[in-house]
What does this fold into?
Amino acid sequence: MTTMSCLNVLFLCTHNSARSILAEALLNSMGKSGFKAYSAGSSPRENQQPNPLGLQILQKAGISIEGLRSKSWDEFAILDAPKMDLIITVCDNAAGEVCPIWPGHPATAHWGYPDPSEGDGSDAEKLEAFRKTMHAMKRRLALLISLPTSKLAKGVLQGTARDLAKS
It folds into this structure.
Protein backbone atom coordinates (compact mmCIF):
# COMPACT_ATOMS: atom_id res chain seq x y z
CA MET A 1 0.00 0.00 0.00
CA THR A 2 1.06 3.56 -0.51
CA THR A 3 1.33 4.43 3.18
CA MET A 4 0.98 2.38 6.32
CA SER A 5 -2.79 2.26 6.21
CA CYS A 6 -3.99 4.17 3.16
CA LEU A 7 -4.96 2.71 -0.20
CA ASN A 8 -5.02 5.27 -3.04
CA VAL A 9 -7.81 4.57 -5.54
CA LEU A 10 -8.32 6.38 -8.85
CA PHE A 11 -11.73 6.18 -10.53
CA LEU A 12 -11.70 6.77 -14.29
CA CYS A 13 -14.42 7.70 -16.74
CA THR A 14 -14.35 9.47 -20.09
CA HIS A 15 -15.35 13.00 -19.05
CA ASN A 16 -14.91 12.85 -15.26
CA SER A 17 -18.24 14.56 -14.67
CA ALA A 18 -20.62 11.93 -13.28
CA ARG A 19 -19.75 8.34 -12.30
CA SER A 20 -16.08 8.85 -11.42
CA ILE A 21 -16.95 11.97 -9.41
CA LEU A 22 -19.64 10.02 -7.50
CA ALA A 23 -17.19 7.20 -6.75
CA GLU A 24 -14.47 9.61 -5.55
CA ALA A 25 -16.83 11.43 -3.20
CA LEU A 26 -18.39 8.21 -1.90
CA LEU A 27 -15.14 6.42 -1.13
CA ASN A 28 -13.64 9.48 0.54
CA SER A 29 -16.77 9.71 2.69
CA MET A 30 -17.00 5.98 3.47
CA GLY A 31 -13.36 4.92 3.50
CA LYS A 32 -12.17 7.31 6.18
CA SER A 33 -8.44 6.93 6.87
CA GLY A 34 -7.97 3.58 5.12
CA PHE A 35 -8.64 4.92 1.62
CA LYS A 36 -8.01 8.06 -0.41
CA ALA A 37 -10.04 8.37 -3.60
CA TYR A 38 -9.36 10.43 -6.69
CA SER A 39 -11.11 10.67 -10.05
CA ALA A 40 -10.13 11.66 -13.55
CA GLY A 41 -11.24 11.41 -17.15
CA SER A 42 -9.55 10.13 -20.27
CA SER A 43 -10.84 13.10 -22.26
CA PRO A 44 -12.70 15.66 -20.17
CA ARG A 45 -14.23 18.41 -22.29
CA GLU A 46 -12.72 21.88 -22.13
CA ASN A 47 -14.04 23.66 -19.02
CA GLN A 48 -15.69 20.38 -17.91
CA GLN A 49 -17.43 20.58 -14.54
CA PRO A 50 -18.95 17.86 -12.37
CA ASN A 51 -22.56 17.21 -13.32
CA PRO A 52 -24.82 19.41 -11.12
CA LEU A 53 -27.30 16.54 -10.65
CA GLY A 54 -24.49 14.32 -9.35
CA LEU A 55 -23.40 17.03 -6.92
CA GLN A 56 -27.02 17.50 -5.83
CA ILE A 57 -27.51 13.78 -5.12
CA LEU A 58 -24.25 13.65 -3.12
CA GLN A 59 -25.29 16.67 -1.04
CA LYS A 60 -28.73 15.12 -0.42
CA ALA A 61 -26.93 12.04 0.91
CA GLY A 62 -24.85 14.21 3.25
CA ILE A 63 -21.61 13.65 1.32
CA SER A 64 -19.16 16.51 0.93
CA ILE A 65 -18.65 17.86 -2.59
CA GLU A 66 -15.83 20.17 -1.54
CA GLY A 67 -12.87 20.05 -3.88
CA LEU A 68 -14.57 17.89 -6.52
CA ARG A 69 -13.55 18.93 -10.02
CA SER A 70 -13.27 17.37 -13.46
CA LYS A 71 -9.68 16.66 -14.49
CA SER A 72 -7.64 14.69 -16.98
CA TRP A 73 -5.99 11.40 -16.08
CA ASP A 74 -2.74 13.02 -17.23
CA GLU A 75 -2.56 14.65 -13.77
CA PHE A 76 -2.01 11.20 -12.25
CA ALA A 77 0.51 9.90 -14.79
CA ILE A 78 3.24 12.40 -13.86
CA LEU A 79 6.10 11.56 -11.52
CA ASP A 80 5.08 13.73 -8.55
CA ALA A 81 1.40 12.67 -8.65
CA PRO A 82 0.02 10.57 -5.79
CA LYS A 83 0.91 6.92 -6.41
CA MET A 84 -2.19 4.81 -7.00
CA ASP A 85 -2.66 1.35 -5.57
CA LEU A 86 -5.85 0.64 -7.52
CA ILE A 87 -7.36 2.13 -10.67
CA ILE A 88 -11.02 1.41 -11.40
CA THR A 89 -12.77 2.34 -14.64
CA VAL A 90 -16.45 3.03 -14.05
CA CYS A 91 -17.60 3.49 -17.65
CA ASP A 92 -17.24 1.12 -20.57
CA ASN A 93 -15.65 3.74 -22.85
CA ALA A 94 -12.77 4.42 -20.47
CA ALA A 95 -12.31 0.69 -19.89
CA GLY A 96 -11.61 0.19 -23.59
CA GLU A 97 -9.11 3.01 -23.94
CA VAL A 98 -5.35 2.75 -23.83
CA CYS A 99 -4.40 4.08 -20.42
CA PRO A 100 -1.19 5.89 -19.54
CA ILE A 101 1.58 3.89 -17.92
CA TRP A 102 0.82 4.48 -14.27
CA PRO A 103 3.71 4.98 -11.84
CA GLY A 104 4.05 1.98 -9.53
CA HIS A 105 1.98 -0.34 -11.79
CA PRO A 106 -1.24 -0.28 -9.71
CA ALA A 107 -3.89 -2.98 -9.75
CA THR A 108 -6.74 -2.34 -12.20
CA ALA A 109 -10.38 -3.33 -12.42
CA HIS A 110 -13.51 -2.37 -14.34
CA TRP A 111 -16.74 -1.68 -12.47
CA GLY A 112 -19.19 -0.63 -15.19
CA TYR A 113 -22.19 1.55 -14.40
CA PRO A 114 -24.70 3.05 -16.85
CA ASP A 115 -24.30 6.80 -17.44
CA PRO A 116 -26.94 8.53 -15.28
CA SER A 117 -26.64 11.74 -17.32
CA GLU A 118 -27.50 10.08 -20.64
CA GLY A 119 -30.89 10.20 -22.25
CA ASP A 120 -33.66 12.70 -22.75
CA GLY A 121 -35.46 12.18 -19.46
CA SER A 122 -36.62 14.96 -17.20
CA ASP A 123 -34.32 16.29 -14.49
CA ALA A 124 -36.33 14.25 -11.98
CA GLU A 125 -35.70 11.07 -13.99
CA LYS A 126 -32.01 11.87 -14.35
CA LEU A 127 -31.78 12.66 -10.64
CA GLU A 128 -33.27 9.23 -9.93
CA ALA A 129 -30.69 7.66 -12.29
CA PHE A 130 -27.91 9.41 -10.34
CA ARG A 131 -29.41 8.17 -7.06
CA LYS A 132 -29.52 4.58 -8.34
CA THR A 133 -25.94 4.78 -9.62
CA MET A 134 -24.75 6.25 -6.33
CA HIS A 135 -26.41 3.44 -4.36
CA ALA A 136 -24.99 0.74 -6.62
CA MET A 137 -21.52 2.22 -6.16
CA LYS A 138 -22.03 2.56 -2.44
CA ARG A 139 -22.86 -1.16 -2.11
CA ARG A 140 -19.71 -2.20 -3.96
CA LEU A 141 -17.50 0.31 -2.13
CA ALA A 142 -18.89 -0.92 1.21
CA LEU A 143 -17.66 -4.39 0.27
CA LEU A 144 -14.23 -2.99 -0.68
CA ILE A 145 -13.70 -1.09 2.55
CA SER A 146 -14.88 -4.01 4.69
CA LEU A 147 -12.29 -6.40 3.26
CA PRO A 148 -9.50 -7.66 5.50
CA THR A 149 -6.08 -6.12 4.82
CA SER A 150 -4.85 -9.42 3.40
CA LYS A 151 -7.28 -8.95 0.46
CA LEU A 152 -5.94 -5.43 -0.15
CA ALA A 153 -2.24 -6.36 -0.34
CA LYS A 154 -0.44 -5.50 -3.57
CA GLY A 155 -0.17 -9.08 -4.82
CA VAL A 156 -3.88 -9.87 -4.51
CA LEU A 157 -5.54 -6.45 -4.89
CA GLN A 158 -6.23 -6.78 -8.62
CA GLY A 159 -8.04 -10.10 -8.18
CA THR A 160 -9.97 -8.73 -5.21
CA ALA A 161 -11.11 -5.61 -7.10
CA ARG A 162 -12.08 -7.63 -10.17
CA ASP A 163 -14.06 -10.06 -8.03
CA LEU A 164 -15.99 -7.11 -6.59
CA ALA A 165 -17.04 -6.17 -10.14
CA LYS A 166 -19.21 -9.29 -10.08
CA SER A 167 -21.03 -8.28 -6.90
Summary: The chain has five helices and four strands.
